[in-house]
Amino acid sequence: MARYIGSVCVLCRREGEKLFLKGDRCMTPKCAIERRNYPPGPHGQSGSFRRKVSDYGTQLREKQKARRIYGVLERQFRRYFQEASKTTGVTGATLLQYLETRLDNVVYRLGFATSRKQARQLVLHGHFQVNGKKATVPSYLLKPGDTISVVESSRKSPFFEGIAKELSRQPLAEWLTLDAQNWSGTVVSLPTRAQIETPLKEQLIVEYYSR
């Protein structure tokens, strides 16, 4: 299955809520949810789409929402769930830990990118290092103690110069630390469920894959 390259605003409209897939644009009146808060397609605005949703449908929508928020394909998402189900902890919380500790998500959480999609592109283009070594795999899972930094040659680029003033002003996840002056951040610990602010009902995802 190929990676989705269509309009991400359509994904937000399909889920009926903001998934914050376009960074700063999602906070403006230009957001698709603000302008057209109904599902895409010929029947979206007519209201004919409104019907009772089954338990399976509710579980599927929650799984799809999680995939779209983190930009993960189905096969990879299922693999995360299978790994989470093998652990001794709560499966749903462990699944979210895997998604949160992906390199592209941590880059986004640190404020080095305005969206996860942008973070993924920056990682693919080689703008970041993990523990001093260049990392170009967005799905790389970070561990407590790992340090993420912007490659020195990239720090003078117009993009990074543009976000330099905003780095220290943005709220930071409790399980991360940021050294804005040195363009780096560190994973202090694995995030607990209470520290993950993503609006997901992970138990529905567990139920979906446990059918």
Q: Could you explain how this protein is built, in words?
A:
The chain has three domains: 1-51, Orthogonal Bundle (Ribosomal Protein S4 Delta 41, Chain A, domain 1); 53-100 and 197-211, Ribosomal protein S4/S9, N-terminal domain (Ribosomal Protein S4 Delta 41, Chain A, domain 1), CATH 1.10.1050; 102-187, RNA-binding S4 domain (Structural Genomics Hypothetical 15.5 Kd Protein In mrcA-pckA Intergenic Region, Chain A), CATH 3.10.290. It contains nine helices and five strands, in the order αααααααβββαββα. It has helices at 8-15, 32-35, 55-70, 74-85, 91-100, 103-110, 116-124, 158-163, 202-209; strands spanning 128-130, 133-134, 147-150, 176-179, 184-187. It has a five-stranded antiparallel sheet, with helices on one face. Helix 3 crosses helix 9. The model has no long low-confidence stretch (mean pLDDT 85).
CATH-defined topology of the largest domain: Structural Genomics Hypothetical 15.5 Kd Protein In mrcA-pckA Intergenic Region, Chain A
CATH architecture of the largest domain: Roll
Largest sheet: 5 strands, antiparallel
What is the general shape?
Answer: globular
In the CATH hierarchy, what is the class of the largest domain? Alpha Beta
- Mean pLDDT over all positions: 85
Strands of the widest sheet, in order across it, are: 2-1-3-5-4
N-to-C order of helices and strands: HHHHHHHEEEHEEH
Terminal residue distance: 23 Å
* Number of E strands: 5
Q: Structural class given helices, strands, pairing?
A: alpha+beta
Assembly type of the chains comes to single chain
Percent range of helical residues: 25-40%
Any idea what the radius of gyration is? 18 Å
What's the structural domain tally?
3
Report the sheet-strand fraction. 5-15%
